[in-house]
Amino acid sequence: AERAPREPLVLGGEYRGPQWRKPNQTLGATTLVETPFARVQLHRVQTEDGQHVIDDWLWVDERDAVNVVARVKDGGRYVMFTQSKYGLEHDSLAPVGGFINDGEAGLQAAMRELNEELGLECPTWNSLGRYRTAVNRGGGWLHAFFADDCVAATRRKKSDDLEKQMVVHLTEEELLQALLRGEIGEVKWTAAVALSILHRQQHHHHQRAAREQAAAHQHQHTQKPEAVWQWRRIADRGI
């Protein structure tokens, strides 16, 4: 049956993000509550086989966000936070993160957040992908980045973060072990850190392979063919 329309509860302003609809499946959407940062809806969804309709599919749209794993040029350590969050039971290691503002691209937001939260700027940026945070409930999209060779920014913008944060510097091995021990308490943070470490390892592998290939190529070209050596031996004996 059609759900009767209701007046949504608007708290602090309307959500201005896009309306999620999946072609051939989303039949309707009723907003229950919204803020400038998120919108909670009930979707009317047709199953993939077309045989059933679900009238109360709970869906949450959120602003897209970024997470940035930063590594400094001086010493090569990763810069992380130890911080608390409302949804966590304990303090956690965390990378830089925040919402993407209206009109910003993911990379622009990542650069801004890194400047605001850590006062860093980086010449080397690596996009690690865009990911849905909750495949059946929404939650926006995460844009993950690895920023390398970071240095102190010439000008730092003011941060609007409300949580208390403590900056920590970790080697790659220390960060990897913290990841494996479960000391990074949110799945998006965990994914960003793991992807960054994998990216670094793959980069090192490619660099090593390129050096080995270049060395083999150089060795091949410095080797004298056997026929040349034979001719020189004959010439030396005056034959």
TrEMBL record:
<dbReference type="InterPro" id="IPR000086">
    <property type="entry name" value="NUDIX_hydrolase_dom"/>
</dbReference>
<dbReference type="InterPro" id="IPR020084">
    <property type="entry name" value="NUDIX_hydrolase_CS"/>
</dbReference>
<dbReference type="InterPro" id="IPR015797">
    <property type="entry name" value="NUDIX_hydrolase-like_dom_sf"/>
</dbReference>
<feature type="domain" description="Nudix hydrolase">
    <location>
        <begin position="61"/>
        <end position="192"/>
    </location>
</feature>
<dbReference type="GO" id="GO:0016787">
    <property type="term" value="F:hydrolase activity"/>
</dbReference>
<feature type="region of interest" description="Disordered">
    <location>
        <begin position="202"/>
        <end position="226"/>
    </location>
</feature>
<keyword id="KW-0378">Hydrolase</keyword>
<dbReference type="Pfam" id="PF00293">
    <property type="entry name" value="NUDIX"/>
</dbReference>
<protein>
    <recommendedName>
        <fullName>Nudix hydrolase domain-containing protein</fullName>
    </recommendedName>
</protein>
